[in-house]
């Protein structure tokens, strides 16, 4: 399973502040995960959080799992609410 290479979809709830996306992108880059697209939803003023959706280019499962563990430990990441492997048909 760790050698499977596919695209990945992440949805995460993060603090709405400058530099959060840069931290996440740096971790992905250090683990050889290329980002295909990013969407940030409008922030929630009451909680001061935002929702970020990331789609990757094909990456190895073991690299993605390692990156997710590191990203989950960031103080600015509240939760990774969705993680989906996306297979081409």
Number of helices: 2
Determine the strand fraction and express it as a percent band: 35-45%
Q: What's the CATH topology name?
A: Alpha-Beta Plaits
How many strands, which pairing sense, and closed or not: the largest β-sheet? 5 strands, antiparallel
- Helix amount, in percent? 25-40%
Named at the architecture level, the CATH assignment is: 2-Layer Sandwich
What is the end-to-end distance? 19 Å
Q: What is the CATH class designation?
A: Alpha Beta
Number of strands: 5
The run of helices and strands is: EHEEEHE
Quickly count the domains: 1
CATH homology group: ACT domain
Structural class: alpha+beta
Summarize the structure.
With 89 residues, this protein is of the alpha+beta class. It has helices at 20-30, 61-73, and strands at residues 5-15, 35-40, 49-56, 59-60, 77-86.
Descriptive notes:
The chain has 89 residues and is α+β, with helices and mostly antiparallel strands. It has a single domain (5-86), classed as Alpha-Beta Plaits (2-Layer Sandwich). The protein is 27% helix and 42% strand. The protein has two helices and five strands, in the order βαβββαβ. It has helices at 20-30, 61-73; strands at 5-15, 35-40, 49-56, 59-60, 77-86. Strands 1, 2, 3, 4 and 5 form a five-stranded antiparallel sheet that branches. A hairpin with an 8-residue loop joins strand 2 and strand 3 (49-56). Helix 1 packs antiparallel against helix 2 (61-73). The protein is globular and about 40 Å long. The two termini are 19 Å apart. 18% of the residues are buried. The model has no long low-confidence stretch (mean pLDDT 94).
